[in-house]
C-alpha cells in the first residue's frame, strides 16, 4: 500500500497463470511474475517469443481474469487505458477514421485528428476500410487509436513491427511526444533491444515460458543523450548484464 | 520453356469485361430481376402448354384473374390486411427473438437450461399454437399476431444464437479496453457481426411468417390472403390461388429490390466483393 | 370376403359422419353381400379427399353437389349419388335472448365454412328477403375453423354460430338450441323438400365402366342406412367412432336419421337446380363460376329410374 | 489511494466456482435438461390449475393419453411414419439447399438472376406446393416428401447463401496457394466456416419440416402425427393433440441431446469458450 | 523468351495495378514495376510500408488478376509454390499439425515433421489450435507450413517479425537450409536491412507508392563470409548507394 500523496505504481504480482487447451494440454504461461512500474515511467518487457508477454498484458487489461495473483493499476488508470494489440484489431466494417473515433470518449469524439493522421501517414487513408490497408498501415491506424485517447496508461504489444525503419523512427518519436504530454505510465512489449533502450526508463527482462523476471535493466541515460553511439554502448552494457537474454 | 500462367492482355481484357458487367449488375438490378421473371414466366407458360391441367393454369389466365380481383378491390383489401399482420408479427418476432437469441448465445448456462424449452416451442405445430392463442385470447387480431410471432420467435432465436456463438472475441476485447458504452457496443461490435445471421433470419423469417399468417387467417380471421386462398381452394380455383400468392410475392420482390438489397449492399460494403 | 369381388376405394374423414355409415357397411358385410369390397381410405380433412379424388387416387369421396356442379362445368366428369340431406344451422344458447333472425343484428356470429358456405348464403338470402337485413353488415361475422367456433360458442365469446350439422348436434347436447336451419331457408326460398347437401361423388367414366359396382355400392349404402335408422344397438357399437355417448350420441343419431334422403332423385335434382339459381344470385361468380345453371348430370342419371 | 480493479482472491475464487459449475454443465447436460423440463411441467401444471379449461389439460392428463396411445400401438406407428418423412425431406432439403445456397453466395451474377425465383419459392404457401405436388405426382410418398423438401429448400438456400457471402477470403487464398484439392477445400475451408449457418438452417429446418409434414399429412396421407392431430382437432381433444406433439418434441430433444449437441461441441471445440 | 536449356527466371512486368476502395477512392499501388529473379536465386524486396510489396506478391501468387501487365514464373513453379503471408493465416479450426499437413501434397501428407517442429520450437504445440498460440508461435507454424511443402518457389512476406532475435536467427538459418536443399527461387519482403543483406543474393529496392524499382543492390559477398563486421560494411555500402531508401 502506498502512503497517501505518493502516486501509486503499476504493481504486478501474478503467482500463476495456466491455460488448458481444447485438446486438454496444460500450459503454464506465467509463474511468479512480479514487477512494478512507477507512475509516469516508461517500461519495456523483453522476452523470448511465446514466453507470456501478451498474456501479461491481457491480464493487466482486465481481459483475462482466470489467474491467481493480483495486480494494481496506477491511479486514474482504470478508466483511461489505451492499448495497441499485437495484431491491429480494427473493426473491418468501419473506416479508419471511424475506428479511431469510436475509441474516444464522448468528450473527445469530435476532436481534430488531422495532425495525428498526418504524422502517421494516414491522411489519404481515413475513409478506407481495414481490409484495404497494408499491414503496416493497419498498425499505424491501431496506433492512432491508442494515441488519440489521451490515456493515463498505455499498453503496447510490439507496436512498430511491419514498418520500415524510417516510419518506425517517426512513430517512436510520436510515441515519446504522446507519453510526455501528460503523466502517462507505459508498458511496451518489444523484441527489438535497440528500440527498448531508446525509449524505456527500465527494461524488464523475462525468462522463457513460464515467464518470470530475470532481471531489470535501468537505462540511466537521459533520453536526449541516447544517440547512435550511446545506444551501441547501452547494447553492450545490456549484453554484459544479461548474457543469455535476447 | 516459358511457364507463365498470367498474361497481361487476357487479364486486363477480363478485367474490363468484368467491370462493365458489374456496372450493369449494380446499376440495373431491376433489369436483371425483370429478365429473371420473364424467364420464369416463359418456363411456366411452356409447362402449362405441355401438360395442360386445371392444377397449372397458364400465366395469362392468372394475370386475368389478378386484374379482375384488383379491379374489384378485393385484392387490395385482403392484401393490406395480410401485410399488416405480417409486418406486425415480423417486428415482434425479430425483436424478441434477436434479444433472446443473442443472450442465449452468450450465456451458455442459461442456454443449457432453456434449450429444451426452445426445442419445445420450435416444434410446437402452428395449429396448436394458433388454436391455443385463439382459445385463450379470443378471436382477436392480437391473438392472431401473437400466435404467428410465437411460431416464428424460436426460429429467430436459433439463428441469432448461432451468430452470437460465432462472435469474434477480439472485437469485444477491444471494446472493453476502450470502454465503449453499451449502445456503441451493440451498434459497432455486435450488429455488424450478427448482420448475416440477421439477414438470414429475416429473409426466411418473413416467408415463414407469411405462411403462418395464411394458416391463422384460415383458422379464425375473416379477411386476408389466407382467407381468400382457402376459399378458392375449396372450389379448387388454382388460378385465383396463384393470383393471390403472386400478388404477395410481387410485394416481397419489390421490398427485396428497393429496400432490403440496397440496405444490405450498404451494410456489407466493407467486404471485398468477390467476382 | 370374396377375394374376386371388385374393390372400391372410398376416401373419408376418419372421425367424419360418412365413416359411421362405411363402418356399418364393413362391420355388417353389406359390401360383400352386394358383391363388392369397400376399401376405406382415411383422411384428416375434407379437402384432402377432394385433392385425392382430383389426383385420381380414389373411386369415391363424399362432397357437396355445388362442388360437383362447379367441377362439371369446368370439364371434370364428376357426378353424385345422394348421401345426406343434413345441413348446418345457426345455434344459440338455450337461454339466449335471440328468438329470430332480427335478433341477430348487432351480435357476434361465427360462421364455419367461409363466406361462400351454402348454408350461410341461404340464411343470408332469407334474412335479406324476409327481414330486409344484411347480416354481413348488421352483425359481426367471424369465419373460422368449425371446432374452434363451437368451442367459442360454448365459452360465450360468440352469440351465435352457424356450423356443420354434427357440430350443431353436439352443441344441442350441450344446451344449445337451433335458431334457424339451412333447410328452413331452403324451403322458404322455394324448394319443395330437403335437398341432399352431400353425396357420394365419383367419375362418370368409372361409373360407366363399372355400372354394377357403382350400383352395388349405392345398395350397400342404403342397407347401412336402413340399419342405422332402425337399430339403436348399432349406434352403441359406433359410439367410439362417433366419439360421443349418452345424450350427445342420441342427438347425433336423431339428426343423422333425419338426414337420410328419401325423395325420388328427380325431385331432388329439380330442387337443387332451383337452389343453384338462388345461390348463383347470392354467391355470384365467386361461388358458382361462370355457369349460371346447375351442370346437367350433376346427379347420377342411373339412379333416376 | 489504491486504485486496483483486479484482486487475486476474488478472482481465483470466481475461477474455481466457474470451473466446478462448468464441469457439472458439461458432464450432466441430461440433468440440466431434466431440471429444465421439470420446471416447464411445473409452470404448465400451475397454469392448468389456475385456469382450468378444455383447451389446456393438465400435464398428467396428457401423460395418461400418451400412455394409452402408446399402449395401443397407434402412437408408435404414426410417429414412425412422420419421422421417416421428416428425415427423408430433411436430407433432401439440406443437401440440395446447401449446394445451391453456397453457389449463389459465391457467384453474385447467378444470384442476382435467380434471386427472384428464390423469393417466389420462399413465399409460395405450403398449401399450394403440396396440392400441386399431389395433383401432378399422385398421392404418393414421394410426392409428399418432395413437396416438403421444396417448401424447405428456399429457407436453407437463404441461410447458406448468407454464410457463403460471409466467408473469409484469406482462407480460400491460402488454399489456392497450397493447391488444396476440391475435397480438402470443402472439408477444411468451407465446412468449418459454414458450420454455424448449417447449424442454424438445420435446427430451424427440422422444425419447419416437421410442421410442413403435418400439413402434408393433413392434406393427403392416411397416417402420421399430422393426420392424428387434425383428427383430434376435429373433436377438439387438446390432450390428445398435445400428447402427439410432445411425443415428437421428446424425440427431437433426445436427438438434440445425444446427437446434435455432442457433434456441435466437437465441431466448435476450437472456439475459446466464453464463460 | 529464354533459349532452350537455360532455366527461366521469375519475370515481373506490371504496368499498373489500381485499387478502387469501397468509398470510391482510387489507389494506384504499382506503376511500371518490373524486375527479374533468376532461377535458384534469393531476392529481397525492400520498400517503405504501404508501397505495394504485398500487392506484388499477391499478383505473383495468382490471388489478384485485376492488373495490367504480365509476369512469368520459373519452370515448375506453378505447381510447387509456397508462401508465408504477412499474417499467419492458419485455419483456426485445425490444430497446428493439421494446418501444416493440409498444405502438403498427397505424396507428402504423412511425412515425418518431428525435426521441423523441433527446430521451430513447436514440438509441444502440435496439438494446439491457432487461437491458443502466441503471435510468434503462429508465425512459426506458418513458416513450418511453407517449409514442409518442399517448394520450387518461395514467397515470404516479412516472415521473421514478432520473433526475438535468437529465434529469428535460428529460423533464418533454417530458411537457408530449405532454400539450398533444392533449386528454389525465393522472393522475400522485409523491412530489416541487415536481414536482407544476410540472406539475399540481390535486394530490389522499391519507391514509395506507387511502387517502382529504385534500384538493385547485388550482395556480391558469398554467404559464409557475411559475419557481423562484413554486414556492417554492407549496410554502409547500401546506404551509400541508396541514400534515400530505408
Ligand atoms: N488460449 C490459450 N490456450 C492455451 N494456450 C495459450 C492460450 N493463449 C496463449 N497460450 C500459450 O501461452 C504461452 C504464452 O503466450 P503469449 O501470447 O503470452 O506469448 P508472447 O510472449 O506474447 O509471445 P510472442 O512474442 O510470440 O507474441 C504460449 O505458449 C501460448 O501457446
Ligand atoms: N483491397 C484494397 N483496396 C484498396 N486499396 C488497397 C487494397 N489492398 C491494398 N491497398 C492499398 O495498396 C497499397 C499497397 O498495399 P500493400 O499491402 O501492397 O503494401 P505493402 O508494401 O505490403 O505495405 P506493408 O509493408 O505495410 O505491408 C496500400 O496503400 C493499400 O492501402
Ligand atoms: Mg505476444
Ligand atoms: Mg505488406
Structure commentary:
Chains A, E: Belongs to the ABC transporter superfamily. Chains A, E: Residues 12-233 form the ABC transporter domain. By secondary structure, chain A is α/β, with parallel strands linked by helices. Helices cover 30% and strands 24% of the residues of chain A. Chain A has helices spanning 53-60, 96-102, 114-119, 135-148, 165-181, 193-199, 228-241, and strands spanning 10-20, 26-37, 42-46, 68-72, 81-84, 153-157, 185-189, 202-206, 213-218. Chain A has a six-stranded mixed sheet with strand order 5-6-7-3-8-9, sandwiched between helices. Chain A has a three-stranded antiparallel sheet with strand order 2-1-4, covered by helices on one side. In chain A, β1 (10-20) and β2 form a beta hairpin. In chain A, 50% of the residues are buried. Mean pLDDT of chain A is 89; it is low at 1-5. Chain B has helices spanning 8-27, 29-50, 59-72, 74-106, 108-123, 126-137, 141-165, 169-177, 182-220, 225-234, 238-267. Chain B is globular. The two termini of chain B are 32 Å apart. In chain B, 46% of the residues are buried. Chain C is of the alpha/beta class. A five-stranded mixed sheet of chain C has the order 2-1-3-10-4. Chain C has a five-stranded mixed sheet with strand order 7-6-8-5-9, sandwiched between helices. Chain C is globular and about 60 Å long. Chains in contact: A-B, A-D, A-E, B-C, B-D, B-E, C-D, D-E. Chain B binds chain C through residues 54-55, 131, 134-135, 138-139, 218-222, 227, 230-231, 233-237, and chain C through 47, 50, 54, 67, 70-71, 74-76, 110, 113-116, 141-145, 148, 151-152, 155, 157, 286-287, 289. One magnesium ion binds at residues 53-54, 86, 157 of chain E.
Amino acid at each position: 500500500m502506498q502512503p497517501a500523496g505518493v502516486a501509486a505504481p503499476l504493481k504486478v504480482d501474478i503467482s500463476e497463470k495456466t491455460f488448458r487447451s481444447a485438446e486438454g494440454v496444460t500450459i503454464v504461461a506465467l509463474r511468479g511474475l512480479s514487477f512494478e512500474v512507477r507512475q509516469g515511467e516508461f517500461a519495456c518487457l523483453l522476452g523470448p517469443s511465446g514466453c507470456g508477454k501478451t498474456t501479461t498484458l491481457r491480464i493487466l487489461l482486465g481481459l483475462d481474469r482466470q489467474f491467481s495473483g493480483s495486480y494494481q493499476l496506477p491511479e486514474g488508470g482504470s478508466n483511461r487505458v489505451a492499448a495497441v494489440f499485437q495484431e491491429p484489431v480494427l473493426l473491418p466494417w468501419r473506416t479508419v477514421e471511424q475506428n479511431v473515433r469510436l475509441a474516444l470518449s464522448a468528450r473527445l469524439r469530435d476532436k481534430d485528428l488531422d495532425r495525428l493522421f498526418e504524422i502517421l501517414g494516414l491522411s489519404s487513408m481515413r475513409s478506407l476500410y481495414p481490409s484495404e490497408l497494408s499491414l503496416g498501415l493497419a498498425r499505424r491506424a491501431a496506433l492512432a487509436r491508442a494515441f488519440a485517447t489521451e490515456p493515463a496508461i498505455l499498453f503496447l504489444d510490439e507496436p512498430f513491427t511491419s514498418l520500415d525503419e524510417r516510419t518506425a523512427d517517426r512513430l517512436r518519436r510520436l510515441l515519446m511526444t504522446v507519453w510526455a504530454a501528460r503523466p502517462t505510465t507505459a508498458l511496451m512489449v518489444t523484441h527489438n533491444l535497440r528500440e527498448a533502450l531508446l525509449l524505456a526508463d527500465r527494461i524488464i527482462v523475462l525468462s522463457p515460458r513460464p515467464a518470470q523476471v530475470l532481471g531489470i535493466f535501468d537505462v540511466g541515460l537521459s533520453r536526449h543523450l541516447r544517440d547512435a553511439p550511446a545506444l551501441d554502448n547501452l547494447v553492450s552494457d545490456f549484453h554484459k548484464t544479461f548474457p543469455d537474454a535476447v | 520453356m516459358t511457364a507463365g500462367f498470367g498474361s497481361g492482355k487476357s487479364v486486363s481484357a477480363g478485367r474490363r469485361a468484368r467491370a462493365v458487367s458489374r456496372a450493369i449488375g449494380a446499376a440495373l438490378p431491376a433489369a436483371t430481376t425483370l429478365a429473371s421473371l420473364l424467364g420464369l414466366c416463359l418456363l411456366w407458360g411452356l409447362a402449362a402448354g405441355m401438360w395442360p391441367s386445371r392444377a397449372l393454369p397458364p400465366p395469362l389466365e392468372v394475370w386475368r384473374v389478378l386484374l379482375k380481383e384488383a379491379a374489384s378491390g378485393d385484392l387490395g383489401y385482403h392484401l393490406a390486411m395480410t401485410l399488416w399482420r405480417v409486418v406486425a408479427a415480423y417486428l415482434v418476432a425479430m425483436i424478441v427473438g434477436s434479444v433472446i437469441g443473442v443472450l442465449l448465445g452468450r450465456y451458455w448456462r442459461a442456454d443449457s437450461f432453456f434449450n429444451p424449452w426452445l426445442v419445445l416451442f420450435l416444434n410446437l405445430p402452428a395449429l396448436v399454437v394458433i388454436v391455443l392463442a385463439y382459445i385463450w385470447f379470443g378471436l382477436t387480431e392480437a391473438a392472431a399476431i401473437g400466435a404467428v410471432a410465437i411460431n416464428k420467435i424460436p426460429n429467430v432465436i436459433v439463428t441469432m444464437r448461432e451468430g452470437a456463438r460465432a462472435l469474434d472475441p477480439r472485437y469485444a476485447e477491444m471494446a472493453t479496453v476502450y470502454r465503449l458504452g453499451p449502445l456503441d457496443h451493440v451498434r459497432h461490435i455486435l450488429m455488424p457481426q450478427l448482420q448475416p445471421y440477421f439477414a438470414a433470419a429475416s429473409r426466411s423469417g418473413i416467408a415463414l411468417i407469411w405462411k403462418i399468417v395464411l394458416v391463422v387467417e384460415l383458422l379464425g380471421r375473416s379477411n386476408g390472403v389466407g382467407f381468400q386462398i382457402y376459399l378458392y381452394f375449396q372450389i379448387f380455383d388454382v388460378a385465383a390461388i396463384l393470383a393471390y400468392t403472386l400478388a404477395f410475392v410481387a410485394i416481397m420482390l419489390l421490398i427485396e429490390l428497393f429496400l432490403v438489397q440496397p440496405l444490405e449492399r450498404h451494410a456489407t460494403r466493407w467486404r471485398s466483393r468477390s467476382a | 370376403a370374396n377375394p374376386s369381388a371388385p374393390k372400391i376405394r372410398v376416401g373419408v374423414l376418419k372421425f367424419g359422419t360418412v365413416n359411421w355409415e362405411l363402418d356399418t357397411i364393413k362391420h355388417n358385410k353389406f359390401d360383400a353381400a352386394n358383391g363388392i369390397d369397400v376399401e376405406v381410405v382415411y383422411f384428416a380433412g375434407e379437402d384432402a379427399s377432394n385433392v385425392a379424388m382430383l389426383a385420381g387416387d380414389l373411386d369415391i369421396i363424399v362432397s357437396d353437389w355445388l362442388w360437383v356442379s362447379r367441377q362439371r362445368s369446368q370439364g371434370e366428369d364428376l357426378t353424385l349419388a345422394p348421401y345426406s340431406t343434413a345441413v348446418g344451422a345457426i345455434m344459440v344458447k338455450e337461454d339466449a335472448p335471440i328468438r329470430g333472425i332480427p335478433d341477430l343484428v348487432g351480435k357476434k356470429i361465427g360462421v364455419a365454412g367461409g363466406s361462400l358456405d351454402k348454408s350461410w348464403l341461404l340464411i343470408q338470402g332469407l334474412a335479406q328477403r324476409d327481414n330486409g337485413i344484411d347480416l354481413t353488415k348488421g352483425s359481426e361475422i367471424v369465419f373460422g375453423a368449425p371446432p374452434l367456433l363451437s368451442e367459442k360458442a360454448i365459452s360465450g365469446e360468440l352469440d351465435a354460430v352457424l356450423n356443420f350439422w354434427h357440430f350443431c348436434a353436439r352443441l344441442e347436447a350441450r344446451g344449445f338450441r337451433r335458431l334457424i336451419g339451412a333447410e328452413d331457408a331452403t324451403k322458404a326460398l322455394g324448394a319443395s323438400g330437403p335437398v341432399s347437401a352431400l353425396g357420394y361423388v365419383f367419375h362418370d367414366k368409372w361409373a360407366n365402366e363399372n355400372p354394377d359396382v357403382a350400383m352395388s355400392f349405392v345398395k350397400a349404402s342404403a342397407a347401412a342406412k336402413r340399419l342405422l335408422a332402425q337399430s339403436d344397438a348399432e349406434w352403441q357399437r359406433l359410439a367410439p367412432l362417433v366419439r360421443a355417448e349418452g345424450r350427445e350420441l342420441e342427438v347425433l343419431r336423431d339428426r343423422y336419421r333425419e338426414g337420410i334422403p328419401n325423395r325420388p332423385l328427380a325431385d331432388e335434382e329439380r330442387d337443387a337446380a332451383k337452389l343453384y339459381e338462388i345461390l348463383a344470385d347470392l354467391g355470384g361468380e365467386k361461388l358458382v363460376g361462370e355457369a349460371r345453371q346447375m351442370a346437367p348430370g350433376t346427379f347420377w342419371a342411373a339412379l333416376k329410374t
